[in-house]
Amino acid sequence: MQKTLPILENIDTARLPQAECDGPASVYLETYGCQMNVSDSEIVASVLRDAGYGLTHDPLQADVVLLNTCAIRENAEQRVRRRLEFFRARKRKHNTNLKIGVLGCMAERLRHKLLEQERLVDIVVGPDAYRDLPRLLHQVDETGQSAVNVQLSREETYADIAPVRYDSNGISAFVSIMRGCDNMCAFCVVPFTRGRERSRNAGTIVRECQGLFDAGYREVTLLGQNVNSYRDGPVDFATLLYRVSLLSPELRIRYSTSHPKDCSEALLEVHRDRPNVCNFIHLPVQHGNSGVLQRMRRGYSADEYRALIEHTRRICPGVSLSTDIIAGFCGETEAEHQDTLALLADIRYDHAFMFMYSERPDTYAARKYTDDVPKEVKKRRLSEIITLQKSISHENNQKEIGRIHTVLVEGASKRSKAQLCGRTDTNKMVIFDRGTLSAGMYVKVRITGCTSATLFGEVLAG
Ligand code: SAH
Ligand code: SF4
Ligand code: F3S
Q1: What share of the chain is helix, strand, coil (3-state, %, to 5)?
Q2: 179 C-alpha vs ligand 3 centroid, how far in Å?
Q3: Minimum-distance ligand to the CA of 282?
Q4: How far apart are CA 57 and CA 47, in angstroms?
Q5: Closest residue by CA, ligand 2 atom 5
Q6: Please, where are the H alpha helices in 100-245?
Q7: 34: CA distance to ligand 2 center in Å?
Q8: Residue 259 confidence (pLDDT) above 70
Q9: Could you report the per-residue pLDDT of 369-386, keeping only the tens digit for each?
C-alpha cells in the first residue's frame, strides 16, 4: 500500500513545519512501509505533540529517534536495521542520552530480538499501542531501562485522534478506516504484525474527511488492508464511500487496498454513479495461476479474477487498474510463472507493484511449504514480469496522448520548479507548465507525451 505505491521510501522530513519544532524534548520520526504506516506516523505525531513533545526534521538535533517500521519482506527489515546501526553509532559517539525506538510492524515481530538479544533500541512499540508512547518514553527517562508495549488490540482504531499531517502537501491526505487483517494469505506477515481486523466508526471518518476538505484538501485516500470488508453496523464499505463522496463534488476519493475475493457489486456501482470516486482500482492479484493462488490462500482462482476484471470494466468503462504480483512463491514452476505473464498480457494493467517472494517467519507458507525457488530464478522471473509490465504501462500511456484529463494540481514537479504535477482521475501522474496555477486547483490538461510511469501535458485555457 509512494503516495499511491504500497511501499514508501522515507518520508521527506525536510517538509516538517517549523511550528512543530520546538518543545521540551524533540522527536525525529522516520517512516517505512505502506500508506498505513504513513497514516500511523501522523497519529504518533499527534499523540506526542499532545504530550508536549516537539517534532524535529533533523535527526541530528533529536533527543528521541523513532523509526516506524515495515516487516513485509526481508529487505524492508534490513533497511531499518542499517538505519538503527547508524543511530546506535551516533548514540555511542556523540549523544549518549539519545533514545532510539522502533515502532510498527517490526516492533511486533522482533520485540525480543531488538530489546533483549541485540540491545539495539530503548523503546519498542507495536501498531496498537501508540497512545502509550508518552508513558513509555517517560519510563525510559525515569528508569534508564528499555520500555516495551506490543499489545495488539481488538478495538483500537485511534478514531478520536486528529492526525498531525506533518508530511502533507496540503492537498491529498490518508484517512485510516480500519486496522489489522483477518485474511491470512499464506505469504503475508501483516495479520501477525497488525492483529485482528477492526473497522473505525463511520461518523468519525466522514467528519475527518469534511475537516480535511474545509482545510483545503481536495483528495482523500481511505486506507485499510482490505477495505471492502469494512463494516460499522449497517455501514459497509460501499455505503461509507458513497457517504464520503457526498461531502463535496470537489473532493476526490480513492482507497487502498481492496481484495478481489470480496469486491462487491455495490462498490462498483458507487464507482459508476459518483463522479468524485476516482475511476481507479488497485486490485492485487498476486499470481496468474490458480494452483499458486490456492497455495497462497487468496480465496479466488485466476478465472474468477479475470471474470471480476471483465465485470468491473463493463460497469466502470475506462477504469484504470493496478495490481501487486509476487514472483517465485513456494513451488512455483516455470509453467505457473508463464501464467502470471499471460495474465498481465491479457489484463493490461496501467501499473503494477512487483516483488520477489520473501519468506516471513510464522506465516502459513513458512510453516507448511518450502521456499524452494532459487534466488537466481526468482530474480529472472521478476525481471521478466517487470519488463513485460513496463512495456504494457508504456503502451497504455501512449494511448493517452491527445486525450484531455481533469487533473488535480498537487504541487511542484520533482524535476523542475517551473512545472507542476498532479494526477488524473485514473491515478496517472501528469507534468505540465506552472503558468499561474497553484496546488489544489482542478485543470484540464491535454496529454502530449509519456514515459511508462508519467504523462506530460499542456494546460487548456479556462
Ligand atoms: N492488503 C494488501 C497487501 C498489503 S502488502 C492486499 O491484500 O492487497 C502489499 C503487497 O506486498 C502484497 O500485495 C504482496 O504483493 C506483497 N507481499 C506481501 N507479503 C510478501 C512476501 N512475503 N514476499 C513478497 N511480497 C509480499
Ligand atoms: Fe496480507 Fe492478505 Fe491481509 Fe493483504 S489481505 S494484508 S496480503 S493477509
Ligand atoms: Fe505496511 Fe509493512 Fe506493516 S507493508 S502493514 S508497514 S509490514
Answers
A1: 40, 25, 40
A2: 11
A3: 1
A4: 17
A5: 183
A6: 105-112, 133-143, 190-194, 202-214, 237-245
A7: 12
A8: yes
A9: 999 999 999 999 999 999
